[in-house]
Amino acid sequence: MNNPSSFQNDAFGASAQAGTRAFISSVFTYMTSALLISGVVAWLGSGSEWLISMMASPMIFLVMLAPLAAVMVMSFGFNKLSYTALATVFFVYSALMGLSLSAIFLVYDLGTIFKVFFITAGLFTTMAVLGYTTKTDLTRMGGILMMAVIGIVISSVVNWFLKSPAFDYLISCVGVLVFTGLTAYDMQKIKRIGEGVEYGTATTSKLAVMGALTLYLDFVNLFLMLLRVFGRRD
After folding, report:
1. DSSP-derived 3-state class of residue 68
2. How many domains does the chain have?
3. For the whole model, what pTM was predicted?
4. Residues β-bridged to residue 101
5. pLDDT at residue 108 tops 60
6. Cα–Cα distance for residue pair 92/70, rounded to 1 Å
7. Which residues pair with 108 in a beta bridge?
8. Which of 64, 65, 113, 177 is the most buried (most CB within 10 A)?
């Protein structure tokens, strides 16, 4: 005769898995929406004469720093901001990123941008699936990769003064490897968050937005690194 407790455990496990899948689905919905907003704004901005002239002025620094300010607001204001406010800041951030990314249309031809985008999407999806399904604990790898990100940032600043194409190519190749690995690590981390929260609460919705921000950053940085490696400049 079947044990009633086994049915309860199975029901609880199925419910938990459904909640995790719903959480992951929310994360990717937010992320996809943000990428769409960024793409549309970047496309529209690339044809703006005002934006082109601004790119050659000191205002470019404002365009570049505005997304960073939005990320800081989301990170430090997570507990104070409501879910609606946090989601709004995230979508504003994606629009600001789109404005910043519009410069790539002035540097690379359209065919190259689309080709690299689809390569990025394929690589990102593969690593996200790997991160979701693997039984290997990627926590230790995450710490190493974050140190590598800091190294990339410092190296990029140094090369801004050196202006070495060879060094830039090396940084980009390392960046591809780092953000590829981070995609799997972050996906596993987000899955574990989904397994430990109750789906449907305001806090869980806010965590889904923050998860979307993390994966959005992985995708965009991977795209930019691949563009610098394989992109053919006009």
Report:
1. helix
2. 1
3. 0.88
4. none
5. yes
6. 8
7. 233
8. 113
